[in-house]
Design brief:
By secondary structure, this protein is an alpha/beta fold. The protein has four helices and five strands, in the order E-E-H-E-H-E-H-E-H. A five-stranded mixed beta sheet has the order 1-2-3-4-5, with helices on both faces. Helix 1 links the parallel strand 2 and strand 3. The N and C termini lie far apart (about 30 Å).
Length: about 130
């Protein structure tokens, strides 16, 4: 068991399947403490040496992350190096959410590594992840 497992919201799950590290959210309405556990989970997924790509599945998520929680996703304090990053596809339930993720990725200069999709894990997503 990881140190963040007991703090994750019941609406967040994760698993490893082959070379992909999956994170699934069913709700964005979480406490700050739960958000910190999700940030720890993201760092863990990025550093996972057994996987080469990440899929974050937000298609069933309800609500929206609070501004306070959005600030946690910077991963400061997690000792993440650019070389640690792996290709990440975020599956969304709206074209607007996918466009917002892609805008943030472009602004951060990581659009070659992180992309939002308004779809399931289809061939376009697999091509991006190179799986």
């Amino acid at each position: 068991m990881n140190r963040f497992d007991s703090r994750l919201p019941k609406t967040t799950s994760y698993w490893r399947q082959g070379k992909i590290f999956y994170i699934k959210h069913d709700s964005f309405l979480v406490s700050l403490e739960e958000g910190k556990a999700i940030a720890d989970l993201l760092a863990y997924g990025i550093k996972d040496q057994e996987t080469s790509a990440m899929v974050i599945d937000n298609r069933d998520s309800k609500g929206a992350w609070s501004q306070e929680l959005n600030e946690l996703w910077t991963l400061e304090g997690h000792n993440i190096q650019l070389s640690d990053f792996k290709k990440t596809a975020t599956l969304t339930n709206s074209i607007t959410a996918a466009m917002q993720i892609n805008r943030i990725s472009r602004a951060g200069g990581v659009s070659h590594m992180s992309k939002g999709f308004y779809s399931d894990l289809n061939d376009e997503v697999k091509d991006f992840l190179e799986i």
